[in-house]
Design brief:
- The longest helix has 17 residues, at 4-20.
- It contains six helices and 13 strands.
- The strands form three sheets. A six-stranded mixed beta sheet has the order 1-5-2-9-10-11, with no helix packed on it. Strands 3, 6, 7, 8 and 12 form a five-stranded antiparallel beta sheet that branches. The chain has a two-stranded parallel sheet with strand order 4-13.
- It is of the alpha+beta class.
Amino acid sequence: MLPLRLLTVTLCALFLAACARSPVVQLYDGPAKADSQVLTVKVPSEIEVFTINGKELEGVNTFFATDFKELKLAPGRYEILAYYKELWQLDVDNHEIVKTNPANFIIDGKAGDQWQLGFDKPQNVEEARAMEDSFSGWASNTETGEKVAAKESDLILNRGFLAPITGEEVTTATSNSIAPQNAAGANATNAQKSTSVAPGASYLDTLKAQWKQATQQERREFLQWISE
C-alpha cells in the first residue's frame, strides 16, 4: 500500500490536474462525437447556465473549472439563459457572492462551429454589484468573429435562492441532453414564451417555481426551516 503522505500527494496531483482541464459536458444523445460533428459552446467559469431552450440540465455548471467549461451540442439554434456569479474577497475575513439577473444568449451554429459566451468583466466588487440588474454580454464565433449580443431576459434573480425565479415555466430534463430549437420544431412564438415572465404571478406561483428549481438538499433545508 502507498504511504499516507504519498497517497495524499497523489490525490492532490490528480485534483490539480482535473482543475487544469476545462470540463467538457456532452448535451446530446448517443456516443461522443468528434468536434467536427458537434457545436461547441465555451462558457466562462464566472457564468452560470440556468436553462438551455427552456430546460434545466444537470452538469452544465461544474465545480472543476478553470477559465471555461465546454458544452457539446447537436448543431442548431439554442437560447442559453445564463447569469454572472462570482465570489469576491472583501478583506481577510469577509467575502461576497455577487449574482446578476440572467441574460439570453442566442447561438445558431453548425457542425464544427466553436462559440464562446462573453461579457465585460468587472474589475472590482463595486463594478460587479452594478451589473446585478443589468447583466449583458454576447456570443461570438471564435473562428469567423461573428458576434451576437445577448438579449434581456426580463427574469429577476431571487438572490436568496440559487436559481432565477419569476413564475416562468421551466422544464427539468429527464436526460442530460437537449435538442436544438429547429430540430424540435420550435418557432419564434414558443421561444418568446419560454423566456417571458408570467404576468401578475402570485407569491404562490413564485414559491412553486422556487420549489421546482431547488436541489434536494435545499428542499430538505427548507422543510426543516418551516417545521421549526
